Amino acid sequence: MHKGAVLAHIKEESEKAKKYLSQLESDQHLTAEEANELLGHIEKIYRNLCVYAHSLKSHELNADLQVHMKIMQTVSAENNVAAEKVVEPVKEVKQEVKEKPLEESVILRKIELSINNRFRISNELFNQNQLEFNAAFQQLNSINTLEEAMRYMESLRQVYKWKDENPLVKNFYALVQKRFV
Are 108 and 180 in contact (CB under 8 A)? Predict the structure, then answer.
């Protein structure tokens, strides 16, 4: 997978999102399903931009990232299934909700690894492929929900054939979960 392919994915998702953005510009409201579809396209754009940014930092995006792109597409396909579910209207709750100021809103921490953990995870779980590890790590730090992170981790586990009983796998899962607690 090269930079051109990542840019093509970004352009493709941007075109899909334009329909909904023009609808919003003309003051038309989106249905819940349309809003979920727009969110899905924006998430795909964001993920591809993360990969593109990573490629700019490493000055190469070669076949080593094909697995990562495959994982992104798998996770995205799973998200599309969720967007197709019927969304029931939410009844209004007549309680006064005190909104938190932006400064107090939930801010997700980044996953922090010591140099030793980074080296061990890269070597043992990513088959000594630092580029793949960095891309996956950046992707995990860009995910906003625990459920999505666990789906991504499950995709990584399947691709790299991680064993559930491996203490390092358990430790890596715990570090990812800690980000959302």
Answer: yes
